[in-house]
Amino acid sequence: MSLITCQEALDAVARHMAELAPRTGVEQVELGQALGRVLSADVHADRDQPPFPRSARDGYAVRAADSGVRRLVGAVRAGEVWTGAPLGTGEAIEVMTGAPVPDGADAVVMLEHVDATDTTVLIREQHLPLAEANVVPRGQEAHAGDVLLRAGTRVTPAEIALAAAVGKAVLPVYRQPVAAVLATGDELVAVDETPAPHQIRNSNGPLLAAMVRQNGGVARVLAPALDTRESLLERIAEARDADVLLLSGGVSAGKYDLVEDVLLAQGAEFYFTGVRMQPGKPVVFGRLPATETHAEQWIFGLPGNPVSTAVTALLFAMPMLRALGGETAAQPMFVQAVLTVVVKGKPGLTRFVPAVLTSGLNGATVVPAGWHGSGDLHGNARANCYLVVPPDVETVTAGSAVTVLLR
Ligand code: AMP
Ligand code: MG
User: Fold this and answer.
1) DSSP label at 300?
2) 360 - beta bridge partners?
3) The pTM is what?
């Protein structure tokens, strides 16, 4: 197994993500169903935004250049439009937030800044407005035809709101990528079976299926494979239609770790077969090239230990899955936080320590969740992120700024 650094491995995945052929397959979904999907076309402004000069305050529309007491000549609410004559010298019109500012007016004075009667408005000396005060000019946010959202954007509530504002009741989105999930190991039984003392329940299958869904993919979960060539071959053939194949287990150096061999025999090419990281060192990334009958398939061979599977899937496989779903900004999410205790490094390896990130207005702190190695699912579940300890560090002192991988 030749090892590369974690950064080299991230770069390798990113390079292949950047070179993916354009996505094909588009669906039309109702706006309310578009959350988490990826736009397959740009969204444009259907008209100027705002479409009229909009009052940003409850108050009085005036001419900034006038002076003295103004004559109050009317009122406009949001949803109305002023139909009288344009505002003339020395006049004021009451306006509400969101109302179109009447022609002739060039400023709005907040109602808190005036002394008003039923017929007059006197702006207090210290609040005399400059032209354009509290008026959002037509088209300030966007002009009709402007691109507001780019194809390749994952839809969050912010995109939903913007699409709604420009009248997109239906959005074009890419087909969801399909990930085949294949756990391997003679010792595995299904969650609803009773394991013998020497058997364990397959937790990586459900973990990976959930991660796939969380990242916008469709999970096709296969029955686990045994640690034999025949069983692996059979399952890998069943999985061949999927965009990605996520394997867990069988990639270490052990006698029954056959995944790589079997994939090689199927014509797979590998871009890395080991990374200087802990947990997750034996992780494999490769591809089955396109054939006459099948499109290319991206392969992630993830080490079977549950925390190793979780970390390597998060770091390498999920960004690729998202990119296959058409998302242009797909990448693992790293942030900075302040470490509150001392943490040991592993010289030569990038460590990913299950940790708890706590955040507030003043930023974020992080502390290891307390775990007992790469098989410790309980420790992993207590965590909400992974603290990254770089390979060249022996000890990270309390109070240091550290990098955290969000999940
Ligand atoms: P392997 O990578 O196949 O050598 O497996 C490493 C460790 O992870 C072993 O202790 C396995 O029993 C465990 N393991 C492998 N696959 C799974 C799985 N699907 N669910 C839970 N544990 C697993
Ligand atoms: Mg195994």
Assistant:
1) E
2) 363
3) 0.95
